[in-house]
């Protein structure tokens, strides 16, 4: 892993995500690219109805550049990395006009970004992605992995990763990417399937589990990987149980449209989750080639 992209709106949770990303970059020997998406008020439809002058792109660009430079200085001073050598990963900055999804998507392709790290916060009992109103579009349309950092999460060495699966073969390529990351971090992976009922050893569901794990063994290579079934009343509570486990440092999932993530971030479970989520959540797009 060479490059980590960190979108920021200069909020406290976004800064926390940036601090997490800097420390992760150090452990991965990666570089950081901070970015800010600029929305120009004078170019919005309502601008013609506003009597007072609105800031133009050049003014907003200058302000963003100043704030990005300030953030870089702060990150290098407070990251607490390698105190003996006082080393900070290389951090570059960029600000561009557009929505968060547009700016991030363009930079991911142009700069060959390996991972995007974003802030996440709980407010009014609802988990909200920061960085503007287009953040939901990010998770729906992103074709790259995004690591969401809860606003209460501080960095700690990633030793145990849980990969929550629905046993879909489109998850095999993302799993391989996760394993590549785990190898760099010297972390173990537990593949977890959540079910709300007992699974008979001769059932179709058990055969599906067996077939999935055979493909995992055939296609991926990682010495520290295991599989476990989690029984709970439903998938949402099963995921919550996983997150509550104190020895889990990272939860990874593959985003399928209308699946568990939609319920986690839109449903009533969100209110329960937002009160105590402290574990980073890594979201992969599905592998559409399989």
TrEMBL record:
InterPro entries per the UniProt record, alphabetical: Rossmann-like_a/b/a_fold (IPR014729), Universal_stress_UspA (IPR006015), UspA (IPR006016)
Domain UspA stretches: 1-150, 158-285
Superkingdom of source: Bacteria
SUPFAM superfamilies in the record: Adenine nucleotide alpha hydrolases-like
CDD domains: USP-like
Family label: Belongs to the universal stress protein A family.
PANTHER family per the UniProt record, alphabetical: STRESS RESPONSE PROTEIN NHAX, UNIVERSAL STRESS PROTEIN UP12
Name this polypeptide is given: UspA domain-containing protein
The species this protein was found in: Pedobacter cryoconitis
């Amino acid at each position: 892993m060479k490059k980590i992209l960190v979108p920021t709106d200069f909020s406290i949770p976004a800064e926390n995500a940036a601090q997490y990303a800097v420390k992760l970059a150090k452990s991965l020997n990666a570089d950081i690219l901070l970015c800010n998406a600029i929305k120009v008020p004078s170019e919005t439809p309502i601008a013609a109805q506003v009597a007072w002058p609105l800031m133009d792109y050049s003014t907003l660009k200058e302000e963003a550049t100043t704030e990005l430079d300030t953030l870089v200085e702060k990150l290098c001073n407070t990251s607490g990395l390698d105190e003996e050598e006082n080393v900070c990963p290389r951090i570059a900055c960029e600000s561009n006009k557009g929505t968060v999804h547009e700016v991030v998507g363009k930079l991911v392709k142009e700069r060959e970004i390996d991972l995007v790290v974003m802030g996440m916060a709980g407010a009014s009992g609802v988990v909200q992605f920061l960085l503007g109103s287009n953040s939901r579009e990010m998770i729906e349309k992103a074709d790259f992995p995004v690591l969401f950092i809860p606003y209460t999460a501080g960095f700690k060495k990633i030793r145990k990763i849980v990969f929550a699966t629905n046993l879909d073969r489109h998850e095999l390529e993302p799993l391989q990417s996760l394993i590549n990351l785990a190898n760099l971090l010297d972390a173990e992976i537990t593949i977890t399937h959540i079910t709300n009922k007992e699974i008979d050893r001769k059932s179709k569901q058990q055969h599906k589990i067996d077939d999935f794990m055979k493909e995992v063994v055939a296609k991926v290579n990682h010495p520290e990987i295991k599989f476990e079934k989690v029984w709970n009343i439903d998938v949402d509570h099963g995921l919550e149980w996983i997150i509550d486990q104190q020895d889990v440092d990272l939860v990874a999932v593959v985003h399928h449209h209308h699946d568990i993530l939609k319920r986690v971030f839109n449903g009533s479970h969100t209110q329960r989750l937002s009160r105590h989520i402290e574990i980073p959540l890594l979201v992969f797009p599905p592998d559409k080639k399989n």
